[in-house]
Predict the 3D structure of the following.
Amino acid sequence: MGVRRRTGEFLLRVNPILCDGFGHCAELAPDLVSVDEWGYPIVTTRPTALTDENALESAHFAVRGCPRQALAILRVSDES
Ligand code: SF4
C-alpha cells in the first residue's frame, strides 16, 4: 500500500446569498478571509496548496463554523 500524497490546491468559496455578513469566518480563517467595511467576507481568490495544512485546517474550521453553511472548499485540479 502506497502513501497517498496531497497534490493540487484549494479555494474557499462563499455563497453571498446565504452569507449573513457577521464575519465569523474571518476569525476562524484569518489567512484566507478578511472582511469588508460591512462585515462581509472577502475570500482570497489565490488558490492555496493542499499541502499547506494550517491553511486547510483553517478553511475546514471556517466551513464548520459558518452558521449559514455559506462556505465550501473547492479543490483546484493540478492536472492541465
Ligand atoms: S461565517 Fe458564513 S455567514 Fe458568517 S460571514 Fe462568514 S461566510 Fe458569511
In short: The chain has two helices and five strands. Residues 14, 19-25, 41, 66-68, 70-71 surround iron/sulfur cluster (CB under 6 Å). The CA atoms of residues 14 and 71 lie 5 Å apart. The helical segments are 24-28, 53-65.
